[in-house]
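Give me structure tokens for this 664-residue protein.
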Amino acid sequence: DLVDSDIFHIKMDFLKAARASWKEIEGSEFGDLIKAYCDGVNAYISEGNLPMEFKLLGYSPEPWQPEDVFLVDKEISWGLTGDFWDFERAVIAKKLPEALELYPAELNHSYPIVRTDKVSKELLDWLKPFEAKEGYGSNNWIISDKYTKNGKPILANDPHLALTVPPVWYEMHLITDDMNVRGVAFPGVPIVIIGQNEYVAWGFTNVGADVIDFYYYATKGDKYLYKGEWKDFEKEERILKVKTNKGIEERKVIVKKTVHGPVIEKNGKEVAVVWTGLSATREFLALYTYNHAKNMKEFLEGVKYFDVPAQNLVYIDRDGNIMYYPAGRFPIRYIGDEVVPGNIIFNGSAGEGEWKGFTPYGHSTWEGFIPFEEIPHLINPDYVATANQRVVFGYQHYLGDSNYFADPYRGMRIYELIDDAVSKGKKIDVEYVMKMQRDVYSKPAEYFVAQMDGVAFSDKAKPYVEELKNWDFEMRKDSKAALVFVIWLKYYINETFGDEFYSAGLDKSYYPKVWVLQNLDKDSKWFDDIRTEKRENRADIIARAMDKAVAEIEKNHYKVYGDYNRLKMNHPFNLNFLNYPLLSADGSKFTVFNFRVSGEPFQVGSSWRMISTFDKSYCVIPGGNSGNYFSEHYDDQLEMWLNGDYKPMEFEIKNVEEVIEVGG
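Here you go.
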């Protein structure tokens, strides 16, 4: 429900946080740039030649303000870090406490990035649609000149976000007297977010760290208890205009806050939320520095300003340096004098879990956060790969338990491909990195198919199992085995955990990581179906899941993976002529070449692919750089992206068809 979405965002008061961030840099050089950008947007609006979407809606936009630029930042940042796992964990502890063993502090793998009763389920159900979307992640890696063919470092990046029409990213090339930078930005933002200039290149993946906390309180009417004192909730009335069949309807929304942050409530249950983005954050100042940087020292100064969303930053420069740094603010929580993890709901009345140095909707000193120098980072390693897996094991500070980080499969595969080339003495070039970004090898398939040995399958299932046993584990659209595996895995997960979870009122969104399932003992209690008298084991569930997969495949007349794995990218209006064509796709959630069918309204995959060197760089977006349906660039990169191809990332004016000069 879009109205519920609006209500949630109003209650979180992202707009006030955006205004605080704007105030933080308003008087700076970058602040002047933002004002000039807004003037340009408003000059275009005033001409009246607006895109067709405005005409179809009968809507005239208000003038674009600097606070709107920062509101885009807050909304994007929330989409990458707004995780409700603390809440979900509390619900699991209440409804199915024995399942907490499925969510360990750390997953038992060797591929981190740095290889060194106060809870309402009804409130959580209402909040879930506004959580960071499952599957939002990314890949990036950097390789030092020690291992490259051209003797220069290489950087690869492909953030995994919603695949939309038009794409979420807008390609941008900015040239000024002191800067020549190219990359991508979000529409409404006047600066390159991921990209390269003549001296440095950088990319991001999501850290996934725990940067949100929830607080409950003792309440009495319009007051809440805080450290022995009854305090009034801060309240402000906002008006939400809703278009109905009867015209525009004005609805009142009460924004309610405590000393910790905004209050979210449903059916009489309420919690306050604290999030690193609900303050005067400075990530745009960081990006402005990145765009202008000429060396690592200048670039590092910018990293200190990158407050939110927490990102695995990779960097290379023309001097041959490479760097990995988890950029962001990571809170340290206390109960009394004891440091505690953040994966619980805190007693706000007692002042538990507070973030020292954090001011909601104001200037924060960040003094109670992990010091910048103590954030685990690497300067000039041989190579580093990040794919949303855990940053490091055995770290002194809490960044999040295992559920905050992705299954390690993509990270494992990227490291395997680099390790393999290095061990063979092969010098890595751009073509090899392109091959890596196209890689569709499934690590889960490698593990799970091996677990099928010795299982007694039904006669009907045996031909399908044979496909898997003769398979190369590549998730290609023309593969029957890939089809069998992905549908079987869906049922295997559900047949293992569904009986316990659904009987406790918990749906599949609460299921543990696939890595946890892979590592369960073959006689684990989780394989036993509590709805039957028999004691099932892993082999029983593997066979049952295969029968269900075969039934679905035959019912839907699927022949190959591409019949199931369809790229469906629709315009928000879902008008056929505005939608991109329906196409079959390679890849999966767990492959480096990343695409997965994830339901409505959006699918998720590589939203931008970039390979940077200081010889020649390459890039591609999933669609086109224009949102104008009549433009030749509306979807001219779609099939290129789908096939794993690239276009050169040019930096010289002579290779550009048209230049628009901006100046006073």
